[in-house]
Amino acid sequence: MGTLLYNTTGLADSGRILHQYLRDNTSPTSTYRLNATLEISKEPTHNRRILMYTPIGCTFDERACKFFSGCAATSKVCDRDSQFSCDIRLPSNYTYDKLGDKNYDIIEHMCRNNLTEKYDMFVKMDDDLLVNMQSFQRNLDSIDIAGRSMLGFLRQASDGVIWPQGALYAFTAETLQGLCRSQEARDQLKGKHEDVNFGRAMATLGDVSFYNIDAVANIYHLQYQSSRLFVQYLQYGKCT
Predict the structure, then answer these.
(1) Quick one: pLDDT band at residue 36, thresholds 50, 70, 90?
(2) DSSP labels for 33-63?
(3) Residue ranges of the domains in the chain?
């Protein structure tokens, strides 16, 4: 599915830096270059209005969400016929092979409801992340980014397109504004691979800065283990 842009150790802590990648406009293909290395300040420098949201499906574990993962503090996005309570109910039901279509409808909802006027940043988080939300919010408020920007654990496809691992990524209101104004870019969201297709939408949109989250404190995907505790999410079963 692509190679990591930076050699990280999973999603755990390894420092306080971000690597910024920009599209190389001198190249005829979608190639990107490392443009800058940014430090995350120790104290928050912003007070951003951030919408954190979690798309949920039929395998959602509501109790685990409350007990373990960061999704207890996020807005839930569910399918039309979902049995779960949610903040945003989408117009259709979606299979695993249509997660890109689900993301398309999420962005369409954001555009129709003018959420760019209410929030400065949007963060998509899976329900199987183990996150210290207070620390994560503090990190987001300590990053100096502006304009069309996207943050994530970035990978690069064989054709050069940069895409974020789907467990966690963030984008600015300016990025969402661009998507809302470009049907061509939004159409790239549709399909099976939600995260890869999001990267293709960014490539179509153009003029986007990509920030690799090389280190954000206390984020673990699928499992956490210490000398005293082991928490692990099991592989998704099939929905009936």
Answers:
(1) low
(2) EEEEEEEPPSS------EEEEEE--TT--HH
(3) 3-222
pLDDT digits (tens, 9 = 90+) for 160-185: 788 888 888 999 999 999 999 999 99
Q: What DSSP string runs through the chain?
A: --EESS---TTS---SEEEEEEE-TTSSS--EEEEEEEEPPSS------EEEEEE--TT--HHHHHHTSGGGGSEEEE-TT-SS--SEE-SS---GGGHHHHHHHHHHHHHHTTGGGT-SEEEEE-TTEEE-HHHHHHHHTT----SSEEEEEEEE-TTS-EEEEEEEEEEEHHHHHHHHH-HHHHHTT-SS-HHHHHHHHHHHH---EEEEES--TTEEESEEE-SS-EEEPPPPPPP-
Beta bridge partners of 81: none
Instruction: Please provide the CATH number assigned to the domain covering 3-222.
Output: 3.90.550
Looking at residue 4, its pLDDT comes to 39
State the pLDDT at residue 10: 35
| Candidate ranges 63-67, 75-79, 131-135; pick with highest mean pLDDT | 75-79
